[in-house]
């Protein structure tokens, strides 16, 4: 089995097509097809449904995928171990992050990291918290920046707390709640239709904030991007509730931002990785860098 066959297979899976894989690998599409055909002959099974758009894995392909990722990681680790002997001159690590961390923390992090490790490539995957966990389990990412809610299994994942951020309210200035001064009581907030971010997070009835309240408020809209929430509020379509970092990096001019008067109106964010998995030198370097890096401005550092 040739390594470049496996690399090509992973490029197709991650980019959901032969054409995009060919672009990223800087080769022709027939070459990509030939690599996969050779791999399938070696394994004695078809790995991809070629007649579907986007391309999908067969059952044999799904069975082979985790082994392909493990093989790619081991090769990268081998290269990195040699590089570590010579000084960390090259390597690749994949980092996952949720949207507001990508906007409010990752750019400064990567700028500083690249200055110290110019030969190390950091590949970035932005996704929702629950999708990040699945990406880590499949081997698509090595490290992830993710809130501690919804919780992950401590038997499967290790983590290092990074910062604490408040949940905050976004109000249209004409909304009745805007007439109240200061932080808003959770009970008063729950009397209104809410716009919330985060599938499986704030918008979930299982979130600790709503458990503390004792009931789940009426949900007007659930969105994935903070700016979508802000624009819905701007048009008078509800009261927004989201995390502090997302508002720090969004255009909230003309809107009223308030804290929530509740002892549980916050969340913690951590860097996560799969327990027991051997990290490449590049991943170890990035993890150490994240642990020591400055946190986003205005947020509480957790050590």
From TrEMBL:
GO MF terms, alphabetically ordered: DNA binding; DNA-binding transcription factor activity
Q: Which UniProt keywords apply?
A: DNA-binding, Transcription, Transcription regulation
Name the GO cellular-component terms.
Answer: protein-DNA complex
Annotated HTH lysR-type domain residues: 1-58
Tree of life domain: Bacteria
Where are the coiled-coil regions? none
Task: Identify its protein family.
Answer: Belongs to the LysR transcriptional regulatory family.
UniProt protein name: LysR family transcriptional regulator
The species this protein was found in: Jiangella aurantiaca
């Amino acid at each position: 089995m040739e390594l470049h066959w496996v690399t090509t297979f992973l490029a197709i899976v991650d980019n959901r097509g032969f054409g995009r894989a060919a672009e990223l690998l800087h080769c022709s599409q027939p070459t990509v097809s030939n690599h996969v055909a050779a791999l399938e002959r070696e394994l004695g099974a078809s790995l991809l449904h070629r007649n579907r758009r986007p391309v999908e894995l067969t059952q044999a392909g799904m069975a082979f995928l985790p082994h392909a990722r493990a093989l790619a990681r081991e090769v990268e680790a081998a290269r990195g171990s040699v590089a570590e002997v010579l000084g960390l001159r090259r390597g690749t690590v994949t980092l996952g992050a949720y949207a507001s961390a990508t906007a409010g923390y990752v750019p400064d992090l990567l700028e500083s990291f690249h200055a110290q490790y110019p030969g190390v490539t950091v590949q970035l995957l932005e996704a929702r918290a629950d999708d990040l966990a699945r990406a880590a389990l499949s081997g698509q990412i090595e490290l992830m920046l993710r809130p501690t809610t919804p919780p992950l299994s401590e038997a499967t994942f290790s983590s290092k707390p990074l910062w604490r951020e408040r949940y905050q309210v976004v109000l249209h200035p004409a909304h009745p709640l805007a007439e109240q001064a200061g932080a808003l009581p959770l009970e008063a907030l729950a009397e209104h239709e809410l716009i919330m971010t985060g599938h499986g997070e704030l918008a979930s009835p299982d979130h600790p904030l709503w458990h503390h309240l004792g009931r789940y408020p009426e949900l007007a809209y659930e969105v994935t991007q903070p700016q979508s929430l802000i624009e819905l509020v701007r048009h008078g379509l509800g009261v927004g509730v989201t995390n502090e970092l997302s508002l720090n990096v969004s255009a909230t001019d003309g809107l009223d931002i308030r804290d929530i008067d509740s002892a549980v109106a916050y969340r913690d964010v951590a860097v996560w990785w799969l327990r027991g998995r051997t990290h490449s030198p590049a991943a170890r370097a990035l993890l150490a860098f994240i642990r020591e890096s400055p946190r986003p401005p205005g947020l509480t550092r957790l050590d």
